Amino acid sequence: MTDAAARPSSILVDVELPDPAPLDPELIRVLSSLRVVLLGWFAVPEQTSPAQARDQFGDDAQAALDTIAQRFEAVGADVTTRLVFTGDELDTISRISVEENCDAVLVPAPADRVALRRVLVPFRGLHNARRIAPFVADLVQDHTTDVTLLHILEEGETEASSLSDVLEPAAAMMREQGLDADLLTLDARATDDPTDAIVERSAEYDLVVLGETEPSIRTILFGTVPEQIVQRAQVPVLVVRKGGEMEEGGNN
């Protein structure tokens, strides 16, 4: 895993206010090894400015957010809270994830308990492996969680080239971060429908970690693959950001 003296990887967890959906206690425990940025976003009614909404609802919204933060703190998580009154959820998530330098964003699944025993990490290539490797190492700290690296073959690729060019280098990065080699499984698959293959494989796991493949978390957060994993496989997804310049948009 990463150096204990280094800053831990961070995850953005967004909750809709004033009536947040409950977060499963096991999911809270799973995320407790990370720095948690808890984003409370309050949807501003039409013809109401964010400032007016904050003046009217700010104290109650902050109290609700603090109550959720205390649940993370109770299991040892380092928590930062951000309260935003906004008319655009996705822009807000995108902006705060950059402002807080979050490594990943949670896309939760409905109500299923998360026992962190098997994690699936699909790769299209090595584009984001250097960010995914330390993130997974920080997430998986008990040396008992199996991590499967999955690469869907693209045109012209073979299982041999997938192993040599993508999966083995990715596994090497994971091992460099302290992951036990015995817990890593490498899986190269050919398919006519990469999304279906990833979704179907995801059903066998407790959690999926995806790399952001677009310039904006807005595009990938509710894009085809994460959305279908959550809806069809009922598995929460952590989307690891590529990083980069802050996008414009959102209201404070």
Task: Jot down its keywords.
252 residues; alpha/beta; Rossmann fold; 9-stranded mixed beta sheet; 23% strand; globular; disordered N terminus; disordered C terminus
Which helices and strands occur, and which strands form pairs?
Blueprint lengths: L9 E8 L7 H6 L4 E9 L6 H25 L3 E9 L2 H11 L4 E4 L10 E6 L5 H11 L6 E7 L6 H18 L7 E6 L4 H9 L4 E5 L5 H5 L2 H10 L3 E4 L12
Parallel strand pairs: 1-2, 1-4, 2-3, 5-6, 5-8, 6-7, 8-9
Antiparallel strand pairs: 4-9
Helix pairs in contact: 4-5, 6-8
Structural notes for this entry:
A 9-stranded mixed sheet has the order 3-2-1-4-9-8-5-6-7, sandwiched between helices. The protein has 2 domains: 98 residues, 3-Layer(aba) Sandwich (Rossmann fold); 123 residues, Rossmann fold, CATH 3.40.50.620. It is built from 8 helices and 9 strands. Helix content is 38%, strand content 23%. 40% of the residues are buried.
